[in-house]
Amino acid sequence: MSLNGLLAALPTSGWNDTSVESLGTNFVTKWSNVTNINQAIILTVFWIGIAVALAFGVINGVKYAMSGGDKFAAQAAKQGVTNAIIGFIIVIGFRTIVALIMSLLGGGTPTGTSAPVFP
Description:
The structure is a single chain. This protein has helices at 3-9, 27-30, 34-65, 71-104. The protein has 119 residues and is mainly α. The protein has a domain at 33-112. Helix 3 (34-65) runs antiparallel to helix 4 (71-104). The longest helix has 34 residues, at 71-104.
């Protein structure tokens, strides 16, 4: 049996609707240009960075609270909180610099608006 014969034997009802609007969202159009993909990547990296900085801050804050008078443990926890704050500032700076560069190049911002908007 040839490939054409196999294809002819398959049911075709409903296959003529090739639009993706029937899925509830226009997936192809949404992800078809590079700007939308870049925006999604930038926002994902931003929110992951915020989550990691926050997690490190909370973990080291708990370590500081649980140090129980041990000077070395308290110092290490303080340094961890300081590093988390620095990481948070770096992530915010990353978002600001990317938004500035994208707006200067005319590509919008990571949020898709014309002006940098921070959540």
